[in-house]
Design goal:
Strand content: 25-35%
Shape: flat
């Protein structure tokens, strides 16, 4: 069973954004989708992002018009069956839950009854759930001191479900549930080449049977076969699919896509990507980035297709073509000829390479859902064209 969804929403953020828009003379009405509904009944399977897209041109602006009700518990959460209504306050659009559905009833100042429905997630739960606990990012030395698989009973080579394994240096029962992980690819910053972390893939879930050195543990669930040298970390099953309000990343925060977790070559909607920015750079859950392609050199096909000095053997200093055309002298093949030499027979010439810098073009939008110190995981929410590793990301244009 999935852990309860938790709320994550800075209270003053939406108001601050709205005041900034008003101060800049930006009309919130212009943010509404042309075919927005006046009322919408939330259904099971909805996500906050999808609902926001029904009302707004840009779903990540939801916090600017959401009208949270402070009189109910978890006022930022939306539940199946809620009726969302578009209203106007001081000429500005606001969306809130229509009164009449009782989700929380106060019995005493300390006791309350809450609805049994789970609130809808911000983004598709089934897409990101496997990456909330099964993929870790560790530092270069984080796993060096971790317990490791040293062998198997009955001289097995690998272990699977219900098999036992021997692990070095688990001498107490303080922790009984572990994850077996295997160090994977290094995440490198494409600009500096520095290693930002290592992917630690989830191999199996194991349970302590007998502490010791080696300790004996049993495999309860397996993603792949357990091998000698695999490391163990405490199982943290409390990592929940937290509720958060999408919001733009800070304007000065830029980064790059450095990997894609499901191994595709071209990135599209609902793929999970790794960014070379994390909590140390100010990335938080719910931050929205736009993805851009461009900024690199490409050959100019027109100039590149012009005649070059490739037929130099058929061209001689006696031909007119030798002396005309777009070329540059880059050196001499041998010593510079004597000044009395009638023609520079040994000159090395070529036409200059023709390139241009590709302008940056927006190719999609992604939202961060998990953050590590120097990298973060993000889900591609929309894709206007196929994206690739090394593409740039920055805060959405406001």
């Amino acid at each position: 069973m999935m852990a309860p969804i938790r709320r994550f929403c800075p209270r003053g953020l939406a108001l601050g954004i709205l005041l900034a828009l008003v101060a800049a003379g930006v009309s919130a009405e212009e943010r509404l989708h042309p075919n927005h509904p006046e009322r919408y009944v939330v259904r099971a399977g909805d996500t906050l992002w999808d609902i926001a897209g029904r009302f707004l041109r840009e779903p990540w602006r939801w916090g600017e018009i959401w009208d949270a009700n402070p009189d109910i518990a978890d006022p930022d959460l939306i539940y199946p069956g809620d009726v969302l209504v578009l209203t106007y306050r001081d000429g500005r659009p606001r969306i809130g839950v229509e009164s009449g559905r009782l989700r929380t009833v106060r019995l005493t100042p300390r006791v309350r009854v809450e609805a049994l429905d789970e609130p809808i997630p911000t983004i598709p739960a089934n897409v990101i759930a496997p990456f909330l606990t099964r993929v870790q990012v560790t530092g270069e030395r984080d796993l060096d001191q971790a317990p490791y698989v040293v062998g198997f009973p009955d001289e097995h080579i690998v272990g699977g479900v219900r098999d036992s394994i021997y692990v070095r240096a688990i001498t107490t029962r303080e922790i009984e549930q572990f994850l077996v992980v295997r160090s994977g690819q290094a995440y490198r910053d494409p600009d500096t080449g520095r290693v930002l972390g290592y992917e630690a893939a989830h191999v199996a879930n194991v349970e302590l049977e007998r502490p010791g050195d080696p300790a004996r543990l049993r495999v309860r669930r397996s993603m792949m076969e357990v091998a000698i040298g695999d490391r163990l970390v405490p199982a943290d099953e409390t990592e929940a699919l937290r509720q958060f309000i999408p919001r733009p990343a800070p304007p000065a925060l830029r980064g790059r896509i450095i990997a894609v977790l499901n191994g595709v070559s071209q990135i599209g909607q609902y793929n999970i990507v790794v960014l070379n920015r994390g909590s140390e750079q100010g990335v938080e859950r719910g931050h929205v980035f736009d993805v851009y392609q461009g900024g690199y050199e490409r050959p100019d096909q027109v100039l590149a297709g012009a005649p070059r000095w490739r037929d130099v053997r058929s061209e001689t200093p006696l031909s007119t073509e030798f002396w005309y055309g777009d070329h540059q002298v880059i050196g001499w093949r041998r010593d510079r000829p004597d000044a009395n030499t009638p023609f520079p027979l040994h000159v090395e010439v070529r036409r200059p390479a023709a390139t241009y810098v590709v302008p940056y073009e927006r190719s999609g939008t992604l939202m961060v859902f998990r953050v590590f110190p120097q990298v973060s995981f993000a889900l591609v929410m929309s894709a206007e064209r196929a994206m690739n590793v090394q593409d740039s990301v920055s805060a959405p244009e406001t």
